Amino acid sequence: MSNKRPNRKKGSVSYAKWGYIFIAPFFAAFAIFQLIPLASTFFYSFFEFYRSGLKQIGPNFVGLQNYIQLFSADLPKYLGNTLLLWIVGFIPQIVISMILAALFTSLSLRLRVQGFFKTVIYMPNLIMASAFAMLFFALFSDSGPINSALVSLHITAEPIRFLANVWGTRSLVALMNFLMWFGNTTILLMAAIMGIDTGLYEAAEIDGCSSWQMFWKITLPLINPILVYVLITSMIGGLQMFDVPQILTNGQGSPNRTSTTIIMYLNNHLFSKNYGMAGAVSTVLFLLCAVLCLLVFKVLTQDESGQKKRKSHKAAKGAVK
Amino acid sequence: MKNAKRFVSLALALVMGTSVLTAATGCQSGPENASAAPVSSKADSSSGTPAAAEGKVLNIWCWNDEFQSRFNSYYPEVKTVADDKSTTTLNDGTVVKWTINPNDNNNYQNKLDEALLKQNTTADDDKIDIFLIEADYATKYTDSDYTLDVKADLGLSDQDLAQQYQYTKDIVTVDGKLKATSWQATPGLFVYRRSIAKDVLGSDDPTTVQKCLSDWDKFNAIAQKANKKGYQMLSGFDDSYRTFSNNVSAPWVDGTTVKVDPNIMEWVDQTKEYTEKGYNNKSTLWSDTWAADQGPKGKVFGFFYSTWGINFTLLGNSLATPVAEGGKEEAGNGIYGDWAVCEGSQPYYWGGTWICGAAGTDNKALVKDVMVKLTCDANIMKSITSDTQDYTNNQKAMEEIAGSDYQSAFLGGQNHIKLFATAAKKIDMSNASPYDQGLNESMQKVFHDYFNGTVDLETAKTNFEKDIKEKYPDLTEVKWPE
């Protein structure tokens, strides 16, 4: 060890240079495709900049006017829609995934043909979201197969007009998001549960723990970091929800704009290539995402570290005693 | 367990395989489109004809295959059509490249605008030579420098254009310059089911039916009568929209103010009433339900349709066995022949397609020839009408057919050209504005919520204002009729 150091100094060959060269392509690509567009989006959000017919209007600097207009308009409503659509889909998703993950990893159950089920539940995620939405649009249309089945089975006399109804539309969006993502979440949670030392369960069993207790006292606390990860990624995905409601409602966010998400609202501004307003929406969405993610992260990890602190505190106290 | 694993890996492999396959098919369009370029260069070398000043690629932009099929069937210079229809080769070796972008959500215009803005910087063979526009947004393009003057720049003479309907020229004339030309005139009529008319009115004769429907009060009365017999008068919310929106007293937009015409509110009231009383089937334009209502199982009295709608849309929807599945366009297949037309309660037009020569084209002579042959040539116009039942833009030819014993088998032997010829003269497009498409679309879709009972009238109005301000940031105010 000691004789290597002088060697480096003598040779005066800086290998660090190669390190920079190797990572340069990433930074170049990042700058061109991410950083510059990001900065220009932010920049143009302070401008009046759109197209009227084939005529370009602007860019004229207007200060914060776009933001003022944004908040005086319906942005909070669309934010609410987005969060609502996400939560309605996410709650069943996390519950079902948790149950499935617990069942699949349960040592006492030892389910057979697990691989088959894992493949099947993951499948909906392989379909393009837009194709999936088209499928649901056709299935649940006023004269679609679901309605003809319901009518011919005499469950309803008249076809149910799912897409003309606020909760009909919202439920369909939530159902689709649930179907597409519960498989993915199950697999993630399974990986987390399988990472837990089986010795803990064996010890608990010997102490006379029920499997219900084991789930709440061992599994859940120990997979907390993965749960946080699932929650945050799902939330980012949820805030950026676009393709499913866009295609299901034919771009209208109907009825009464109750399924218009923030990104759909952003998309509306692109009708006239309104880069100013669209930039303002994007900036707000970016800030919202950042704040919400930090908040969730703080809340969920603080608990854990708080507990740890308390535990170590107790342990220290015990040691003193 | 091993078997299960094998099964899983097989399933996964299959899934991967299919995704690879779909990727492969998805990619195919790329190389095929690109292949047009090499073909043209070959043609270049083989036929070094004197017309070398002209480009060897004619780029045509449109939103569906209507013009494409007219071009391929009726343009005399067509030599071969590619199997996938993406290109057409002409006798002199020029390759026509078709770029088709569907209309929905402004998609066609967005793509077209992008391409037109780059028109000056792209290579000659990639420049747009011809693009098509619709009545709803025609002025957006005719009132710009991206379209050529049909007479001054392309060289069509007044004599060439003499037989075209005046309104088809008026709408695309800006400051005295004619900026586009059309092969069709699109007067609208009311198409009704003969069998239902017989049941409700006791007669399916167009003159008798017209007498019963000649104004809106009568129309509403028949709607009630039809409803009692278990039929719906109209299919959905948007069916009668055009008859009201074409009979407004002023253009949609005045300066930066949107003025909603009282006649549009008439449509709102009528449709609300029809929806509540069950006179319509709550469908929306172009939806599955709407299309099914035009089919054998439909119970709808009639549809407001203009010329192209009858041969292009209604005919296809009315067949029990579609042509693609081996069905024939003849009586006995679905409700072919169970239709007839009458003028309806108000004259109106719907749609219409114009051909524009794009500024910067390297094929001026060819563009001119396409325009002359496909919009001015009386013989071609006449054969389009007799073959396809489309109504073409040539007064003399149409009067001739109107006066002849021409019969449409689809319309139960009626000579509908006669009615169109009368209706075409009444068309007034003086209230067209560049905002029409966006405003008409917003109006229809926003009020669906009101008809469905999800929102009240005031909310629907506010939603309309929100909608159009997102679409057109330059519009500042909306004035509703008192």
3D architecture notes:
The complex is a heterodimer of chains A (about 325) and B (about 475). Chain A is mainly alpha-helical and about 325 residues long. Helix content of chain A is about 70%, strand content about 5%. Chain A has a domain at about 75-270: MetI-like fold (Orthogonal Bundle), CATH 1.10.3720. Chain A has 14 helices and 2 strands, in the order ααββαααααααααααα. Chain B folds into 2 domains: about 35-185 and about 350-405, 3-Layer(aba) Sandwich (D-Maltodextrin-Binding Protein, domain 2), CATH 3.40.190; about 190-350 and about 435-480, D-Maltodextrin-Binding Protein, domain 2, CATH 3.40.190. In chain B, about 45% of the residues lie in helices and about 15% in strands. In chain B, helix 12 (about 260-275) packs parallel to helix 19 and helix 19 (about 435-450) packs antiparallel against helix 20. Chain B is globular and about 70 Å long. The interface between A and B is large, with 43 and 44 residues.
Report the sheet with the most strands of chain B, covering strand number, pairing sense and barrel closure: 6 strands, mixed
Low-confidence stretches of chain B: 14-52
The average pLDDT score of chain B comes to: 85
Beta content of chain B comes to 5-15%
At the fold tier of CATH, the topology name of the largest domain in chain B is D-Maltodextrin-Binding Protein, domain 2
**Helix proportion of chain B:** 40-55%
Give me the CATH fold name of the domain at 74-272 in chain A: MetI-like fold
